[in-house]
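INPUT
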Amino acid sequence: MNRPDIESGPDAGLDLVDALALLSFLVHDTLAELAGRHELSIVQTRLLGILRDREPTMNELGRLLGLDKSSISGLVDRAERRGLVTRTASAQDRRAVHVATTAAGRRLAAEVETAFSARIGELTAGLAPSDQARLIAYATAMIARSRSDQGDHPNLEPRLRAKT
Amino acid sequence: MNRPDIESGPDAGLDLVDALALLSFLVHDTLAELAGRHELSIVQTRLLGILRDREPTMNELGRLLGLDKSSISGLVDRAERRGLVTRTASAQDRRAVHVATTAAGRRLAAEVETAFSARIGELTAGLAPSDQARLIAYATAMIARSRSDQGDHPNLEPRLRAKT
DNA sequence: CTAAATTGGTACGTGCCACGAACCAATTCA
DNA sequence: TGAATTGGTTCGTGGCACGTACCAATTTAG
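OUTPUT
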């Protein structure tokens, strides 16, 4: 609502909701595009990112990505088939399976992340450092708010990667 | 890169790339969740949003959504099967097909959009009006930059809706 | 200590989404 | 008029996500 009637250009007079939706799609599509150049989907990229510094079980992976365990099975299947990750039996629990990246997986993930950082850098190049800082603050505030609101949101991974 | 070593909380010390990625996922997931409550996917929601004030052909729809024509066929098929849109023959070009929403489609889209606006409102409630204005400005700047950069990006639809 | 729950994973089957290729019908161009 | 071009549909393929059913290992309870 409150859609201003005066609209000269395509992005003129965007309200907060529109602006955030557009920005979100832009970033999302950018990542999809960059990952796609390496035949990776966004989920696959996030998977590899998470595995950068961990070897979680399928179960933990599910929580980390906010996906059902059956989804994880397929996801890891496809990644394993491509030689990007490996399954290893757990020593503690003989039911459990740990997932780890291969060198190839790490390399791919790193390439995507580098390209993504570069692209985001281009998109924000017009903002002064102080404005970039403010943008970070706003985003952080919104993320924090979403966490406290319900808490049941899937774990979001900074830069598609780790999280304490 | 430049990942700060000092990290106390989950979102502490996010850099610009991480912050934007997280924010993007947050908004995206929020929309997916809200749309999902009405059995709608994000694409379906965008489709209905676009049709709010237009009756484009399949072809135009493809450009608007940045999808292949074959993808549009299936998309419209499923929506039509659910009674959310209708196909009508074009008067000018007997090959072409125009797509329009039904009342049910409009109602659904409106509900999702209302819920989405409300949720974004909650997430940004902590920001002062001046900060919200700045956030809009930053987002708008990034979007503008992405357009000028290559120009071949798929058409982004403000609030999943119209666009001049 | 064994029987009953619970937990960790996998294997379907289903459906959406996206693509490319093949194809048909209508339109436009030469 | 004949040859491209354009608008759409129909496959076939593959990723993604879910729920259900199922199996094996582990934990809990009696």
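end of record. Chain A touches chain B through 59 residues (CB under 8 Å).
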